[in-house]
Amino acid sequence: MMNLQTVRKYFKEHFNGEGSVYASPGRVNLIGEHTDYNGSFVFPGAIDKGMIAEIRKNGTDKVRAYAIDLDESAEFGLNEEDVPAQQWAKYIFGVCREIQKRGGQLEGFDTAFAGDVPLGAGMSSSAALESTYAFALNDMFNLGIDKFELARIGQSTEHNYVGVKCGIMDQFASIFGKAGHLIRLDTKSMEYDYFPFDPKGYKLVLLDTVVKHELASSAYNKRRESCETAARTIHDNGNPEVEFLRDATIEQLDAVKDKISEEDYMRAKYVIEETQRVYDVSEALEKGDYETVGDRMYKTHDGMSRLYEVSCEELDFLNEEAKKHGVTGSRVMGGGFGGCTINLVKEELYDSFIEEAKKSFKEKYGHEPKVYDVVISDGARKVE
Ligand code: GAF
To answer: What's the whole-model pTM score?
Structure first.
């Protein structure tokens, strides 16, 4: 439903007249999961699904927002105490506040928005929303904020107004995305490069369990704390160079095993291994070696399931189905606790795999998984 006409129609109905229209996408991530708050690498790409918003200054000091998909309105001021009640409006409010904290001068505006990124599917609908407004307000109020800071504004919104201590991957991909390219981002130095991604003979497809387990954000924050505890302990025990887990080796982790909890150890082990897998995948992609890419995807799934414990029964089931069917690579994508698997499938296997996965998933869970073909697309932009 990322549809210009729809947004124009509802904006007109609610606010009369026309504003400017902006859009930002969700993302996929080939490999490098839960590495972005550990100073490590990620491999995301923006997708052809996202959020679209029409927006126009209204000459007041209030924001009037309409969420088309929910048929809900919100009105709020721009001061810290003006937090709106609706969860979706907190994202827009948070972006405004983070811009203001950085010295950006804002005034009231009217806005209507809609999206076609499935909510809770691990494709980053929230980053798409944040990036849409960060990009739009920067443009509309001529704030001159650079793209890195726009991504950080979205991330700080999550930290300070949503309560998820996320890394930078999702907002970065949504702002910096480029059609046909994955982004290899080093989250420690913030250096990045665009990696052409056109795996001849393969398809990248998402299977959405349509399951979202509760408490995902507190479980996410807890994992981040475990990683920080492990990195700090390694640092404090004779390894001053270790700032993030990305800098640590398994040997260094093993040396402090009795100083941290079993849980923190498992989390840290996963991150250190995942960091190595991202290096392996970078190299494999340069050579067009998709068998290695796929192998590491399966290993990531295994690590996310057993060590990081962010998978769930439904995701493990889809992963097993992929394996059974000879799919090249498959794993849970994004934060976990439900959502999608990302699958690298040989073209000739595609139809039979999708058919089988749908059938067996439905037999077990009573509903089919949703299927999304991945189209790697451009990042945040002004539509008109
Ligand atoms: C979520 C977060 F928002 C990202 O920053 C990232 O940590 C991801 O989970 C896991 O890789 O999408």
So the answer is: 0.97
What domains can be seen in the chain, in order of their start residue?
4-196+378-382 (3.30.230.10), 202-374 (3.30.70.890)
Beta bridge partners of 343: 205, 330
Residue 219 to residues 165, 166, 225, Cα–Cα distance (Å): 11, 12, 10
Distance 132 CA to ligand 1 centre (A): 18
pLDDT score recorded for residue 2: 57
Q: Is 71 a catalytic residue?
A: no
Percentage of the chain surpassing pLDDT 70?
Answer: 99
Determine which residue's CA is closest to atom 1 belonging to ligand 1. Answer: 335
- Structure ipTM over 0.90, yes or no: yes
Cβ atoms 34, 274 nearer than 8 A: yes
Cα(154) to centroid(ligand 1), Å: 13
